[in-house]
Amino acid sequence: MIDAVKNRPNVMKSISPKVIVSQGLNPFKKVEMNEKYKQFIPIQHHDSELYQPLTEKEKKMVKEERDKRVGIKKNKKLKMMKEATMMKIKKMAVGDVGDKLEKKIDTKSAH
Question: What is the pTM of this model?
Fold first, then answer.
């Protein structure tokens, strides 16, 4: 173990770090910048990478991802609506019995 500690600086120098290559701009951000903000940006900055039109590949990817997200949101909403309906049904079913029990308790306490 002592050898490992002594040898650590040499090992660290011999290892070269990996270069991380940027993936580029997020296509969703490019869409947002083009659609929402380009009109407010001075013309001299329209050449920036942020405001360039999307490639067909990027457009297709963004559309597919949006469709997927919309589908997930719809499924969540449907599930919540079903649960709410079931809660209403249970409340209605139990509500009648619960109201009768409350009336019985109230009449007993009034005597």
Answer: 0.43
